[in-house]
Amino acid sequence: MNAFMTPAKVGFVVVASLMATVWMFGQVGQSLTGETDSFRVYAMLDDVSGLVTKSRVSIAGINVGQLDEVELVEGRARVWVRIAKRPDFLLKSDARIHKRQASLLGEYYLEITPGYLGDSLKDGDEIKNVGTDVSPAELMNDLRKISQDVVS
């Protein structure tokens, strides 16, 4: 009897582990912003280097969505962002979006300020206020110019 119980216990543990793994992948596979409880807005950016599909989108450091799609429109990038519908915030017409650097390795994310005035943004609306940060390469070029002016 004991010879049968040990393989049965091992088999049970293996099956339970497999089921737990499948369940966890299912949970991770469901995005933060599932189709039914989210909406998409877009912004026109001049530079999307360092941003990739599924890059995080945050408000006050809290993840609220992800970059859904990037399109080229008349020489500029149209960035579609999927935002979770949440009762604790609404995006207003004066919302602002910034491309922020997450690390020195070139990873970027999008930071949204939800705005305070105007109508609430709906699915398909545009975030018109776009801010940009200085990239490390631009900063180095500016420092090079300044150092050349100081030496001259």
Reconstruct the topology from this structure.
Blueprint: H1 2-29, E1 38-45, E2 56-59, E3 62-73, E4 76-84, E5 96-101, E6 108-113, E7 129-132, H2 136-151
Uncertain segments: 31-35
SS content category? alpha/beta
Give the mean pLDDT: 83
Strand content: 25-35%
Q: What fraction, in percent, of the residue positions are helical?
A: 25-40%
The best one-word shape is flat
How many DSSP helices? 2
Oligomer: single chain
Cα-based radius of gyration, to the nearest Å: 23 Å
User: Order of strands across the biggest sheet?
Assistant: 1-4-3-2-6-5-7
What letter string, H or E per element, gives the SSE order? HEEEEEEEH
Question: What is the rounded distance between the termini?
Answer: 92 Å
Largest sheet: 7 strands, mixed
Number of strands: 7
